[in-house]
Structure formats: C-alpha cells, structure tokens
C-alpha cells in the first residue's frame, strides 16, 4: 500500500466520520468475513425505557406498587448499567415525589443484575439465573409473563425482596432507524452478520428479527464476549467486532478489526481500531467499502 493512497483513503473515511487509528486498519478492513454486532447501544438505541411493572402479591398481599418500585429504584440507582438508568428514570416519571432511599449494601453482578440491601431487606433485580443463584422460587405464572414480554423484544427483570419473588419490571430498547438497512447492505456485500448479547434468547431473537439478523449469540456473559470472537476466528473467519460498552472492550481488542460506536464509552473507543462517529451501523459497510477501494487503487 502506498502511503499516499492510505492517506487519501483515511481522509475520505474521516469525512464520513469513520476514524481509523492507523493506516494498517484501513488496509485490513476489506478482509473481513463476519461482522459481529453487540446488541444494546449498537444495534439498538441503547436508551431503554421502562414499559411494564408487575407486583406479585401472593406472599405480600398488601404490597403497593409504590413500595415495590422504591425498593427496585433504591437498588438500581447505584448501577451505571443502561437498564438500571432506564428503571430509575421510569420510576421518577411515574412517581415524581418518591424518594429513593440509599442502599446499605450494593453489588452489581455483571450479566446477572444487582443485589442491594434496602430498608433492612435484601433486594435482587435481574435474570432467571440471578434468582436461581439466590434460591428464589419463581412461580410458573411469572415465568410465562416474563417470556411473553421477551417475545415482544423487551428485557424483563425479576425482582426478589427478602428471598421471595416480588414481581418484575420490563424495559424496551428499540433498534436504530438505520440498523436494518445497514445489515441488508452488509449481507449484499457477502458478509455474515451475527448479533451478540448478554440478554436472553427470546429478547435477542426478537430484536435480531427486526434488524434482519439471522445469527444470534444470546446470554453471553461479559467475560465470554472475547471468547466468542476467538471461536469465529478458529473457524478461519476474519472478524469485525462492533460495540459501544465497557463489556465489549476485550472483544473489540480480540477482533481482527474492532469498531467502536462513537456515542459509546471511552473504554470501547480505546480498545477499538476504528471509531464510528456517526454512531450507527451504516458506517460499517462504508468503512469496509472504503478499505476495498483503497486496496484496489494500490494493486
Ligand atoms: P448486554 O450485552 O445486552 O449489554 P449485559 O451482559 O450487560 O447485557 O446484561 C445481561 C442481562 O443481565 C441483562 O439483559 C439483564 O437481564 C441483566 N442485568 C444486567 N445488569 C442489570 C441491572 N443493573 N439490573 C437488572 N438486570 C441487569
Ligand atoms: Mg452495548
């Protein structure tokens, strides 16, 4: 590759908001076989909104939604996860006068949820696995309600108070307007597109369907995302990983080319080889085309 063509290519890419960290990445992007997309904040807007609140009253017949949400909110206000922010914001909109107490203890369990002690009681908010870990029994009716919400593409989180199932909350995160068109372009370019997420299978499939993605890796724990990149590479595939979160950084570093969404976290941008300033998926086919053109010019 001549330095001149690389310079020109990088300049044109930069005009489109595609910032390659070095000429070698502009040169290698055209070799990609698979584009691996993080879900939350990459395929979706990453701005989930609280949509459903269900209080379970079998064990606590007097439990008010207000008290339920005070406990949930007190637990979640300590978490920086986008799901937590959505829950707290939703509670504030619903009950503007509600004061969320400070939790006496707090623990974020990546990929599972949160655990906090609020007003002397242990509060858990998160996945089925989080409930199983803490031996919380969730009735069949609640499980099927959860599945129904997930089939709508929502992320439902179970809530336990003092060791008993107390209800659930659900949030919805919609796909970016440009995601489906960008995925179609990638398919037309002959690339495989795979979505990867820590979210459950049903929600992940519903979101992927909306974006036209037919390959989905769901329920991937944060520490396993890089291993999924490695697995694809072991099949002889060259992988472009696209993500926005702190959780995505090891996978972005592991990939043949890491692409960070410019509206995401600094950690992701530091780990990546390219930053997509426009913040949407249409920059991925643009970046690969730019590389193809640059390489064609120099051959
Ligand atoms: P993603 O890959 O979509 O960003 P994560 O790996 O961060 O997802 O989280 C996986 C799952 O763990 C979430 O879908 C949610 O069910 C649960 N979870 C994570 N953080 C929280 C939280 N702060 N509160 C409740 N549930 C959470
Ligand atoms: Mg994300």
From TrEMBL:
It is found in: Cell membrane; Endomembrane system. Belongs to the cation transport ATPase (P-type) (TC 3.A.3) family. Type IB subfamily. This is P-type Cu(+) transporter.
């Amino acid at each position: 590759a001549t330095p001149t063509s690389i310079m020109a290519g990088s300049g044109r890419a930069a005009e489109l908001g595609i910032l390659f960290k070095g000429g070698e990445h502009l040169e290698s992007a055209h070799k990609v076989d698979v584009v691996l997309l993080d879900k939350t904040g990459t395929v979706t807007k990453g701005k989930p909104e609280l949509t459903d609140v269900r209080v379970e009253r079998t064990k606590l017949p007097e439990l008010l939604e207000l008290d339920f949400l005070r406990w949930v909110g007190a637990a979640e206000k300590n978490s920086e996860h986008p799901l937590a922010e959505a829950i707290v914001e939703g509670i504030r909109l619903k009950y503007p006068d509600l004061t969320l107490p400070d939790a006496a203890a707090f623990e974020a369990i990546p990929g599972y949820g949160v655990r906090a002690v609020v007003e002397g009681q242990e509060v858990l908010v998160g996945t089925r696995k989080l409930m199983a870990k803490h031996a919380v029994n969730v009735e069949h009716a609640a499980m099927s309600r959860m599945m129904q919400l997930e089939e709508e593409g929502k992320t439902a989180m179970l809530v336990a108070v003092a060791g008993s199932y107390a209800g659930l909350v659900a949030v919805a995160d919609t796909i970016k307007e440009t995601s489906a068109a960008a995925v179609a372009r990638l398919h037309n370019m002959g690339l495989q597109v795979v979505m990867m997420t820590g979210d459950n299978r049903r929600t992940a499939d519903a979101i992927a369907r909306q974006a036209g993605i037919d390959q989905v890796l769901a329920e991937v724990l944060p520490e396993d995302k890089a291993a999924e990149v490695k697995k694809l590479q072991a099949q002889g595939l060259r992988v472009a990983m696209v993500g926005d979160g702190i959780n995505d950084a090891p996978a972005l570093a592991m990939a043949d080319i890491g692409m960070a969404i410019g509206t995401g976290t600094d950690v992701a941008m530091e780990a990546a080889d390219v930053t997509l300033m426009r913040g949407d998926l249409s920059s991925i086919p643009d970046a690969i085309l730019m590389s193809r053109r640059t390489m064609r010019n120099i051959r």
